[in-house]
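Example record used in the benchmark description.
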Amino acid sequence: MSALTRDVALGVSEAGSGVAARTLRQAPLIQSRRNAIRWMVSAAGLGLGAWAVGERGTIRRLTADLRTGTGERRALTLPDGTLLELNTGSAVDLRYTAGQRELVLLEGEILVTTAPDPQGRPFTVRTRSGVLTPVGTRFLVRDLDDGRAMRVAVLEGAVDVRGLDPAASPRRVPAGEQADYSAGGGFAAGPLEPATSAWLTGMLIADELPLSDFLRELGRYRPGLLSCSDAAGALRVVGAFPLADTDKVLAMLQEVLPVRVRHYTRYWVTVGLA
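Model output (C-alpha coordinates):
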Protein backbone atom coordinates (compact mmCIF):
# COMPACT_ATOMS: atom_id res chain seq x y z
CA MET A 1 0.00 0.00 0.00
CA SER A 2 1.46 3.38 -1.01
CA ALA A 3 1.82 6.30 1.40
CA LEU A 4 -0.94 8.13 -0.51
CA THR A 5 -3.32 5.17 -0.23
CA ARG A 6 -2.60 4.79 3.48
CA ASP A 7 -3.12 8.48 4.14
CA VAL A 8 -6.47 8.66 2.33
CA ALA A 9 -7.62 5.34 3.81
CA LEU A 10 -6.80 6.70 7.26
CA GLY A 11 -8.98 9.74 6.64
CA VAL A 12 -11.89 7.59 5.48
CA SER A 13 -11.52 5.23 8.43
CA GLU A 14 -12.08 8.13 10.82
CA ALA A 15 -15.77 8.18 9.88
CA GLY A 16 -17.83 10.81 11.59
CA SER A 17 -18.43 14.53 11.33
CA GLY A 18 -14.88 15.17 10.17
CA VAL A 19 -14.79 12.68 7.30
CA ALA A 20 -15.71 15.13 4.53
CA ALA A 21 -13.25 17.76 5.73
CA ARG A 22 -10.40 15.26 6.11
CA THR A 23 -11.09 13.69 2.72
CA LEU A 24 -11.01 17.12 1.11
CA ARG A 25 -7.65 17.80 2.78
CA GLN A 26 -6.29 14.73 1.05
CA ALA A 27 -7.61 15.85 -2.35
CA PRO A 28 -4.52 17.90 -3.31
CA LEU A 29 -2.49 14.71 -3.04
CA ILE A 30 -4.62 13.04 -5.68
CA GLN A 31 -3.86 13.95 -9.27
CA SER A 32 -7.35 13.40 -10.60
CA ARG A 33 -10.25 15.53 -9.36
CA ARG A 34 -12.58 12.63 -10.08
CA ASN A 35 -10.52 10.32 -7.87
CA ALA A 36 -10.76 12.78 -5.00
CA ILE A 37 -14.54 12.83 -5.26
CA ARG A 38 -14.67 9.04 -5.46
CA TRP A 39 -12.88 8.88 -2.11
CA MET A 40 -15.52 11.18 -0.64
CA VAL A 41 -18.34 9.06 -2.02
CA SER A 42 -16.71 5.88 -0.72
CA ALA A 43 -16.72 7.49 2.72
CA ALA A 44 -20.50 7.69 2.41
CA GLY A 45 -20.68 4.01 3.27
CA LEU A 46 -19.08 4.86 6.60
CA GLY A 47 -21.52 7.57 7.61
CA LEU A 48 -21.95 10.11 4.80
CA GLY A 49 -24.58 8.33 2.73
CA ALA A 50 -27.28 10.95 3.24
CA TRP A 51 -24.83 13.74 2.48
CA ALA A 52 -23.68 12.10 -0.74
CA VAL A 53 -27.21 11.46 -1.99
CA GLY A 54 -28.34 14.98 -1.16
CA GLU A 55 -25.41 16.58 -2.95
CA ARG A 56 -25.42 14.68 -6.23
CA GLY A 57 -25.76 17.91 -8.18
CA THR A 58 -22.75 19.39 -6.41
CA ILE A 59 -20.71 16.25 -7.07
CA ARG A 60 -21.61 16.38 -10.77
CA ARG A 61 -20.33 19.94 -10.98
CA LEU A 62 -17.16 19.21 -9.04
CA THR A 63 -16.21 16.25 -11.23
CA ALA A 64 -17.18 17.79 -14.58
CA ASP A 65 -14.52 18.61 -17.15
CA LEU A 66 -16.04 22.06 -17.61
CA ARG A 67 -18.34 23.92 -15.23
CA THR A 68 -19.67 27.32 -14.21
CA GLY A 69 -20.83 28.64 -10.87
CA THR A 70 -24.02 30.54 -10.09
CA GLY A 71 -24.21 33.68 -12.20
CA GLU A 72 -21.10 32.74 -14.19
CA ARG A 73 -20.80 32.33 -17.96
CA ARG A 74 -17.86 30.77 -19.74
CA ALA A 75 -16.89 30.57 -23.41
CA LEU A 76 -14.12 28.40 -24.89
CA THR A 77 -12.93 26.66 -28.03
CA LEU A 78 -12.72 22.86 -27.92
CA PRO A 79 -9.82 20.90 -29.46
CA ASP A 80 -11.71 20.34 -32.73
CA GLY A 81 -12.57 24.03 -33.14
CA THR A 82 -16.13 23.74 -31.82
CA LEU A 83 -17.20 26.80 -29.83
CA LEU A 84 -18.87 26.14 -26.49
CA GLU A 85 -20.50 28.59 -24.10
CA LEU A 86 -21.78 27.54 -20.68
CA ASN A 87 -24.56 29.44 -18.96
CA THR A 88 -24.92 29.79 -15.18
CA GLY A 89 -24.69 26.65 -13.04
CA SER A 90 -23.72 24.34 -15.91
CA ALA A 91 -21.54 21.24 -16.04
CA VAL A 92 -20.20 19.41 -19.12
CA ASP A 93 -18.01 16.37 -19.69
CA LEU A 94 -15.99 15.95 -22.89
CA ARG A 95 -15.78 12.55 -24.56
CA TYR A 96 -13.41 13.01 -27.46
CA THR A 97 -11.92 9.78 -28.79
CA ALA A 98 -10.46 8.53 -32.06
CA GLY A 99 -13.97 7.65 -33.23
CA GLN A 100 -16.32 10.24 -31.72
CA ARG A 101 -16.83 13.76 -30.41
CA GLU A 102 -19.42 13.92 -27.65
CA LEU A 103 -20.42 16.53 -25.09
CA VAL A 104 -22.28 15.29 -22.02
CA LEU A 105 -24.49 17.99 -20.50
CA LEU A 106 -24.73 17.00 -16.85
CA GLU A 107 -26.82 20.02 -15.91
CA GLY A 108 -27.46 23.60 -16.91
CA GLU A 109 -27.43 25.13 -20.38
CA ILE A 110 -24.96 25.48 -23.24
CA LEU A 111 -24.54 27.07 -26.66
CA VAL A 112 -22.73 24.93 -29.23
CA THR A 113 -21.32 26.10 -32.56
CA THR A 114 -19.99 23.00 -34.27
CA ALA A 115 -16.87 22.89 -36.42
CA PRO A 116 -16.06 20.40 -39.19
CA ASP A 117 -13.73 17.67 -38.02
CA PRO A 118 -10.69 16.81 -40.19
CA GLN A 119 -10.93 13.23 -38.91
CA GLY A 120 -14.59 12.94 -39.88
CA ARG A 121 -15.74 12.00 -36.39
CA PRO A 122 -19.47 12.39 -35.67
CA PHE A 123 -20.54 15.02 -33.11
CA THR A 124 -23.26 14.50 -30.50
CA VAL A 125 -24.54 16.11 -27.32
CA ARG A 126 -25.85 13.73 -24.67
CA THR A 127 -28.16 14.84 -21.86
CA ARG A 128 -29.90 12.91 -19.10
CA SER A 129 -33.00 12.61 -21.30
CA GLY A 130 -31.75 12.22 -24.86
CA VAL A 131 -29.12 12.61 -27.55
CA LEU A 132 -28.72 15.42 -30.09
CA THR A 133 -26.95 15.15 -33.44
CA PRO A 134 -26.34 18.54 -35.08
CA VAL A 135 -26.27 19.10 -38.82
CA GLY A 136 -23.79 21.93 -39.42
CA THR A 137 -25.29 24.06 -36.76
CA ARG A 138 -25.39 26.54 -33.90
CA PHE A 139 -27.79 25.56 -31.15
CA LEU A 140 -28.73 25.81 -27.48
CA VAL A 141 -29.39 22.90 -25.13
CA ARG A 142 -30.89 23.21 -21.66
CA ASP A 143 -31.39 20.50 -19.05
CA LEU A 144 -34.95 20.69 -17.67
CA ASP A 145 -36.96 19.18 -14.82
CA ASP A 146 -33.92 17.74 -13.05
CA GLY A 147 -32.82 15.81 -16.11
CA ARG A 148 -36.22 14.41 -17.08
CA ALA A 149 -36.42 16.68 -20.13
CA MET A 150 -34.37 19.02 -22.27
CA ARG A 151 -34.90 22.02 -24.53
CA VAL A 152 -33.08 22.46 -27.81
CA ALA A 153 -33.20 25.77 -29.70
CA VAL A 154 -31.64 25.90 -33.17
CA LEU A 155 -30.12 29.18 -34.33
CA GLU A 156 -28.47 27.83 -37.50
CA GLY A 157 -28.64 24.51 -39.37
CA ALA A 158 -30.68 21.72 -37.80
CA VAL A 159 -30.52 19.24 -34.91
CA ASP A 160 -31.82 15.66 -34.73
CA VAL A 161 -33.20 14.73 -31.30
CA ARG A 162 -33.81 11.20 -30.03
CA GLY A 163 -34.10 9.31 -26.75
CA LEU A 164 -31.27 7.55 -24.97
CA ASP A 165 -32.18 4.27 -26.70
CA PRO A 166 -29.99 4.07 -29.84
CA ALA A 167 -32.93 2.47 -31.66
CA ALA A 168 -35.20 5.47 -31.01
CA SER A 169 -36.30 7.42 -34.10
CA PRO A 170 -34.90 10.98 -34.24
CA ARG A 171 -37.00 14.13 -34.60
CA ARG A 172 -35.47 17.05 -36.54
CA VAL A 173 -35.57 20.61 -35.24
CA PRO A 174 -34.74 23.17 -37.98
CA ALA A 175 -33.27 26.64 -37.63
CA GLY A 176 -35.63 29.16 -36.08
CA GLU A 177 -37.42 26.56 -33.95
CA GLN A 178 -37.10 25.11 -30.47
CA ALA A 179 -38.40 21.91 -28.95
CA ASP A 180 -38.85 20.36 -25.52
CA TYR A 181 -38.08 16.65 -25.40
CA SER A 182 -38.83 14.43 -22.39
CA ALA A 183 -37.18 11.19 -21.37
CA GLY A 184 -40.52 9.50 -21.93
CA GLY A 185 -40.52 10.49 -25.60
CA GLY A 186 -42.68 13.62 -25.41
CA PHE A 187 -41.88 16.17 -28.11
CA ALA A 188 -43.27 19.71 -28.32
CA ALA A 189 -41.88 22.04 -31.00
CA GLY A 190 -42.57 25.65 -31.89
CA PRO A 191 -41.00 28.92 -33.08
CA LEU A 192 -37.78 30.03 -31.40
CA GLU A 193 -38.68 32.40 -28.56
CA PRO A 194 -36.45 35.46 -27.92
CA ALA A 195 -36.32 34.63 -24.21
CA THR A 196 -34.65 31.29 -24.92
CA SER A 197 -31.43 32.83 -26.23
CA ALA A 198 -31.53 36.14 -24.34
CA TRP A 199 -28.89 34.97 -21.85
CA LEU A 200 -26.32 35.09 -24.65
CA THR A 201 -26.55 38.89 -24.49
CA GLY A 202 -26.81 38.97 -20.70
CA MET A 203 -30.54 39.61 -20.59
CA LEU A 204 -33.64 37.99 -19.13
CA ILE A 205 -36.73 38.59 -21.27
CA ALA A 206 -40.26 38.21 -19.95
CA ASP A 207 -43.44 38.41 -22.02
CA GLU A 208 -46.46 38.14 -19.73
CA LEU A 209 -44.49 35.69 -17.59
CA PRO A 210 -45.94 34.90 -14.14
CA LEU A 211 -43.79 36.50 -11.46
CA SER A 212 -43.27 33.10 -9.82
CA ASP A 213 -41.73 31.75 -13.04
CA PHE A 214 -39.74 34.95 -13.55
CA LEU A 215 -38.18 34.70 -10.10
CA ARG A 216 -37.42 31.01 -10.60
CA GLU A 217 -35.48 31.95 -13.73
CA LEU A 218 -33.78 34.91 -12.09
CA GLY A 219 -32.82 32.67 -9.19
CA ARG A 220 -30.57 30.66 -11.49
CA TYR A 221 -28.26 33.70 -11.63
CA ARG A 222 -27.98 34.54 -7.92
CA PRO A 223 -27.04 32.48 -4.87
CA GLY A 224 -29.44 31.76 -2.06
CA LEU A 225 -33.21 31.59 -1.75
CA LEU A 226 -35.50 33.78 -3.86
CA SER A 227 -39.23 33.24 -3.42
CA CYS A 228 -42.59 35.00 -3.58
CA SER A 229 -46.06 34.76 -2.11
CA ASP A 230 -48.79 33.01 -4.10
CA ALA A 231 -50.63 36.30 -4.62
CA ALA A 232 -47.54 38.08 -5.93
CA GLY A 233 -46.54 35.08 -8.02
CA ALA A 234 -49.69 35.42 -10.14
CA LEU A 235 -48.70 38.91 -11.35
CA ARG A 236 -47.38 39.15 -14.91
CA VAL A 237 -43.95 40.46 -15.87
CA VAL A 238 -43.10 42.15 -19.16
CA GLY A 239 -39.70 43.55 -20.09
CA ALA A 240 -35.98 42.95 -20.59
CA PHE A 241 -33.77 42.78 -17.49
CA PRO A 242 -29.95 42.74 -17.09
CA LEU A 243 -28.63 39.52 -15.57
CA ALA A 244 -25.37 41.13 -14.48
CA ASP A 245 -27.10 42.80 -11.51
CA THR A 246 -29.95 40.74 -10.07
CA ASP A 247 -30.42 43.16 -7.16
CA LYS A 248 -31.13 45.87 -9.71
CA VAL A 249 -33.69 43.60 -11.36
CA LEU A 250 -35.46 43.11 -8.04
CA ALA A 251 -35.52 46.87 -7.52
CA MET A 252 -36.98 47.32 -11.01
CA LEU A 253 -39.81 44.94 -10.15
CA GLN A 254 -40.92 47.25 -7.37
CA GLU A 255 -41.19 50.07 -9.90
CA VAL A 256 -43.34 48.21 -12.41
CA LEU A 257 -45.41 45.93 -10.15
CA PRO A 258 -47.32 46.42 -6.89
CA VAL A 259 -44.80 44.36 -4.93
CA ARG A 260 -42.34 44.77 -2.09
CA VAL A 261 -38.98 43.03 -2.03
CA ARG A 262 -37.69 42.04 1.40
CA HIS A 263 -33.98 41.28 1.86
CA TYR A 264 -33.64 39.30 5.08
CA THR A 265 -30.02 38.53 4.15
CA ARG A 266 -28.01 38.67 0.93
CA TYR A 267 -29.04 35.06 0.36
CA TRP A 268 -32.66 35.15 1.51
CA VAL A 269 -35.03 37.38 -0.44
CA THR A 270 -38.82 37.27 -0.68
CA VAL A 271 -41.30 39.16 -2.85
CA GLY A 272 -44.85 39.92 -1.72
CA LEU A 273 -47.66 42.29 -2.54
CA ALA A 274 -46.99 45.88 -1.50
